[in-house]
Amino acid sequence: MLIFSSLLVEDCRESKTGTSFGGEFVLFSSLLGIARACNEGVPRWLNSDPDHSGPRRRANLPPGRMGWPLIGETLELIAAHKTPNPEPFTESRRARFGPVFRTHLLGKPTIYSTDSEVNKFVLHNEGRLFASSYPMSLVSLLGKNSLLLTHGHLHKQLYSLTWSFTSSSVLRDHLMAEVEEIVCSTLSTWRSSAGGPEQKVIYVQDEAKKVTFNLSVNQLLSSSVDSEWTEALRKEYLLLVEGFFSLPFNLPGTTYGRALQARIEIAKRIKEVVDRRKVLESRAPGDYCDLLAAFLRQKLTDEQIVDMVISLLVAGYETTSMIITLAVKFLTDNPPALEEIQAEHKAIKDGKKIGEKLSWSDVKSMTFTQCVINETLRMGNMVGGVFRKALEDVDIQGFTIPRGWIVFTSFRAVHLDEANYVDAHVFNPWRWLDCNSGSNLNFKFTPFGGGPRFCPGHELAKVEISLFLYYLTTQFRWQAAENDELIFFPTTRMILGINHLASVYPAQCFVFINMCIHNPLHY
Ligand code: HEM
């Protein structure tokens, strides 16, 4: 899956809100000997048109500007997304050129679409007119057999395998109990051990990440690994993810070099689990029912298994944990919404015996919770859009997208367009009451993408978020301890890391840094 941030640019999170760029990228730009060159009127060798679109095709291009040679408008894009308000990048171009414009991003000439109809057309034609496209750094780190990178028959096989492990029935019969257990055990560590009033710092983003990572590992490898193994893998995995946002220079000490090393280590660890499992399966076939068992049954090679495990961890980890974190933030900032979700959860809890777990129908009955999740997905835009490559010249809305060009389908622009949502920048979960399923709305709501690559984990993600919010609101009360803001590069995240200070009172409360929690309410 492509997040805006899966780029070839160096991450420089240390600068948090600044618009400076990492050393590798600055070096890269200097090497290019930057000279501003708009598409019109530059010498041919400077005109960054690697596909050499002929005059006919160029005449039909959507309007726009290509920015600097080779790096195009990448710096402007990143600078905008390192602020809490990246919209001007898109809005200024949309106002000047219309909803579909050309630009040059991440080394490629790009058609940038803020139009839901164009997005729909592009995503539905995956594999025919367009193919998903990822930067080189990501390809090497994920591995060529990753579900996100495969095409054709292999993609279909791996996709339906993944889908079969996240379907409603699997969720209802198996996965939900696992999610519940992991959420409850994570939240139980927040409680005051002494039982008296005390203050405690809770890092909600980290806590959410523990939940989603542990769950993914469980789902993939089940009981074949213990918590120590999982934590060691998570550390390597964090290094790997850093590499997604770096220049693909495999030099010692670079982010990308460290990420490649981490990938080798992760592959070794996963391979050990696979070898152990093969022995166990040969002694007692059919004892396991996780994804690894399914991969082995389908006779995937070790290399394919490693790539699949890595890509599934990538796809579900940061996306879901960040939406959990954002949902807590939006609720904290909106007391009426918080009260309503608390009331919904309390009504469910009141109908339960002490310690009784949630049922599938309980989750399905959480109407307002689903509204909160939809609104968080719309405003949070964890996946701001996806990149596709045109496999041939494609004519659409009177324009031609030349073969080899990239199309960026911006979900973010559609989700925050006033023409699609009244007061689009206001968190208003009630807007979903009339259309709770949030199913696509004719491509005006696509947090999980669309077409043949529609997110196979969308239901699982919603269950994880619902359960986290349920146990949070029924066990704790909280208040914001300090303000924080969202930025969108290299991924959607809080500037301060959305760390929450929890002030814990005996059976009553928790507070966070940034947003906070109050107390365990007897559960
Ligand atoms: C809130 C959480 C999530 C969001 C916002 C999200 C969003 C997306 C989006 C937009 C895509 C489409 C990418 C494209 O078209 O290129 C996608 C694909 C994918 N997602 Fe998710 N996702 C989430 C959670 C999960 C989870 C929990 C899993 C775990 C199974 C998962 C697994 C995948 C996979 C494997 C793909 C690739 C499908 C393909 O390329 O065929 N996602 N996701």
TrEMBL record:
<comment type="similarity">
    <text>Belongs to the cytochrome P450 family.</text>
</comment>
<dbReference type="InterPro" id="IPR001128">
    <property type="entry name" value="Cyt_P450"/>
</dbReference>
<dbReference type="InterPro" id="IPR002401">
    <property type="entry name" value="Cyt_P450_E_grp-I"/>
</dbReference>
<dbReference type="GO" id="GO:0016132">
    <property type="term" value="P:brassinosteroid biosynthetic process"/>
</dbReference>
<dbReference type="GO" id="GO:0020037">
    <property type="term" value="F:heme binding"/>
</dbReference>
<dbReference type="GO" id="GO:0004497">
    <property type="term" value="F:monooxygenase activity"/>
</dbReference>
<dbReference type="InterPro" id="IPR017972">
    <property type="entry name" value="Cyt_P450_CS"/>
</dbReference>
<dbReference type="Pfam" id="PF00067">
    <property type="entry name" value="p450"/>
</dbReference>
<keyword id="KW-0408">Iron</keyword>
<dbReference type="GO" id="GO:0005506">
    <property type="term" value="F:iron ion binding"/>
</dbReference>
<comment type="pathway">
    <text>Plant hormone biosynthesis; brassinosteroid biosynthesis.</text>
</comment>
<dbReference type="InterPro" id="IPR036396">
    <property type="entry name" value="Cyt_P450_sf"/>
</dbReference>
<comment type="pathway">
    <text>Hormone biosynthesis.</text>
</comment>
<protein>
    <recommendedName>
        <fullName>Cytochrome P450</fullName>
    </recommendedName>
</protein>
<dbReference type="GO" id="GO:0016705">
    <property type="term" value="F:oxidoreductase activity, acting on paired donors, with incorporation or reduction of molecular oxygen"/>
</dbReference>
<keyword id="KW-0479">Metal-binding</keyword>
<dbReference type="GO" id="GO:0016020">
    <property type="term" value="C:membrane"/>
</dbReference>
<keyword id="KW-0349">Heme</keyword>
<dbReference type="GO" id="GO:0010268">
    <property type="term" value="P:brassinosteroid homeostasis"/>
</dbReference>
<keyword id="KW-0560">Oxidoreductase</keyword>
<dbReference type="GO" id="GO:0016125">
    <property type="term" value="P:sterol metabolic process"/>
</dbReference>
<keyword id="KW-0472">Membrane</keyword>
<feature type="binding site" description="axial binding residue">
    <location>
        <position position="455"/>
    </location>
    <ligand>
        <name>heme</name>
    </ligand>
</feature>
<keyword id="KW-0812">Transmembrane</keyword>
<keyword id="KW-1133">Transmembrane helix</keyword>
<keyword id="KW-0503">Monooxygenase</keyword>
